[in-house]
Design a protein that fits this description.
The protein is 73% helix and 0% strand. The chain is mostly helical and 545 residues long. The termini are close together.
């Protein structure tokens, strides 16, 4: 059975969307806005090496860990209320961060920024479900949402660089304040409140388990990517997986769970969640390589590299609306699969890059893979949001974004490890073992660049290091291309039939209960969780969109 088309949105709803996109842009920018500011912060606050890492990472860790909790909270208290609360917290924390007088205080305030960001991100996506009841309009709105979110991460270093040329490091936080004030002033007049239809209080133990599951896993994966295998990150991943298992088990026995496990087991929702995870795996995993290539191989300044890194946004701007238009005529599964295959071609293009390749050659490859990925992610977001019952839109959006955070961390770890292994092997073969600083030079290109080498060998060593890094990036690109090809086949195989342009998944008959699928359906997408996969509804009944 298909849902009846909803009323079309007017000018007020589109203006409301524009107001909601501004904080989303800033929340996504805050992930990367400190890249240029860290040297200035280090001079002023004199953090230790560990404190410096936490200043950079605390925001992203808290944001990722609280997404599910905040999505479920918005379903219960109203998403507009949560947006306004998140904006107030984010604005106040931005002022506190700008005038922080110690490293510990800045770390604490960065955690509060993550709290505010976690309240804003799923709520902005969920409110699209309320503002745009017409499916075609909602598809356009989700396209804008996806483009803004992905563009924000790229804009962060550029905005940071511009501000730091004229102001002190606190200005990178104060830029958030006008947008949050505007949001607080306009949202009550432009955005209707979502009716809190999910019965029951938020379960504190579930909230603690979701935070305890995501935080150590993402922390462990990122540390593994930075330093290789170490006992503490491995223990963090293990603890996170155990707590994640406990979280899922608890949801199966709650009358009013934070996550509808039956919804996650449905093809129209669980499939896009996995597709988004794979897309972010490749996006974040390769972003690290491209940033280093532009700066350490081609020799661009950080600010110039950040400006050139915006060029792939042209691919995003072109492909996303094309994909949305195609999805109105043919099955979304084919469009998503095509987007992933386009991205695979872009990654294969990157395997041809050499240390002396022209800048335009690199940017073309990055534009192709970015355009394909955003096309796929836009349709995945729209399909999943349409499949979620309106009263569960907040928690559904949070699950989507949590999958993206996890995918990004896995991409950094897996692709980063591939590149590091190739670099280390090539450098071991190229350098004599008794050369000064040989161990450090073999670790990373950054170490080779920073090492104080004898003048007689410095140029040769740096040339070898750049060749080794570029080779490692090429091999990692092959890995990303293989994953994207697999994601394309997955989209065609699992989502065909549920991604047609007309209709969306039927919503739950009882707003307070799960969507009607048996809880064991989740096992189809999360191996290792006990339960039967014999349920007829595991991947949705025939005819469901």
């Amino acid at each position: 059975m298909e849902n009846e088309p909803g009323p079309r949105a007017g000018r007020k709803e589109w203006v409301a969307l524009g107001v909601l996109m501004l904080p989303l842009l800033l929340v996504s920018m805050d992930v990367s806005i400190l890249y240029f500011a860290i040297p200035y912060i280090s001079q002023d606050l004199e953090p230790s090496a560990t404190q410096q890492l936490w200043i950079l990472d605390m925001y992203g860790f808290v944001l990722a860990g609280l997404l599910i909790t905040m999505g479920a909270l918005g379903d219960r208290i109203g998403r507009r209320t949560l947006v306004l609360t998140g904006a107030a917290v984010f604005g106040a924390a931005s002022v506190a961060a700008a005038y922080a007088h110690s490293a510990d205080l800045l770390i604490t305030v960065r955690a509060l920024l993550g709290l505010g960001g976690a309240a804003l991100m799923p709520s902005t996506l969920a409110l699209i479900r309320n503002l745009f009841r017409d499916e075609k309009q909602r598809r356009k709105a989700v396209t804008i949402w996806t483009a803004v979110m992905t563009t924000g991460v790229s804009l962060g270093p550029v905005v940071s660089g511009l501000l730091l040329e004229h102001y002190w490091w606190g200005s990178v936080f104060l830029i958030n304040l006008p947008a949050m004030v505007l949001l607080l002033a306009l949202v009550p007049f432009l955005v209707p409140e979502s009716t809190p239809e999910v019965r029951g209080r938020l379960d504190p133990l579930s909230a603690a388990l979701s935070l305890g599951a995501l935080l150590p896993v993402i922390y462990g994966v990122k540390e593994w990517a930075r330093h290789g295998y170490e006992p503490l990150p491995a223990l963090g991943i293990a603890v996170g997986l155990v707590l994640g298992f406990a979280f899922v088990r608890r949801q199966r026995h709650l009358a009013h769970p934070m996550i509808d496990l039956g919804l996650l087991g449905r093809r129209a929702f669980g499939g896009p969640v996995l597709a988004n995870l794979l897309a972010m795996f490749a996006t974040v995993g390769m972003a690290v390589f491209l940033t280093q290539y532009l700066q350490s191989v081609l020799g661009l300044s950080p600010f110039t590299a950040a400006l050139w890194s915006l060029v792939p946004a042209a691919g995003v701007a072109g492909m996303a609306p094309i994909a949305a238009a195609l999805a109105q005529r043919i099955d979304r599964a084919y469009v998503m699969g095509g987007g992933f295959l386009v991205s695979a071609c872009g990654f294969l293009w990157l395997t041809r890059i050499r240390t002396d390749s022209a800048l335009w050659f690199t940017l073309v490859g990055a534009s192709v893979y970015a355009g394909g990925l955003v096309a796929a992610m836009t349709l995945a977001n729209e399909l999943a949001l349409g499949a979620a019952p309106p009263q569960r839109a907040g928690s559904a959006a949070a699950v989507l974004e949590s999958g993206q955070e996890l995918g990004g961390a896995l991409g950094m770890a897996v692709l980063g490890s591939i590149g590091a292994a190739v670099y280390s092997r090539d450098m071991s073969e190229a350098l004599p073992s008794d050369m000064p600083h040989a161990e450090a030079v073999r670790e990373t290109l950054g170490s080779a660049t920073a090492a104080k080498l004898p003048a007689a060998v410095a140029d040769a060593v740096l040339a070898a290091a750049r060749d080794a890094f570029t080779h490692g990036m090429g091999v990692a690109s092959v890995g990303a291309a293989v994953v994207m090809a697999g994601a394309g086949l997955f989209s065609l195989g699992l989502l065909r039939g549920v991604g047609k342009a007309k209709g969306s998944a039927p919503s739950s008959t009882d707003p307070g209960q799960p969507s009607g699928l048996c809880p064991e359906a989740i096992t189809g997408l999360m191996p290792g969780i006990p339960g039967s996969v014999g349920c007829d509804d595991t991947f949705g009944r025939r005819g469901e969109a």
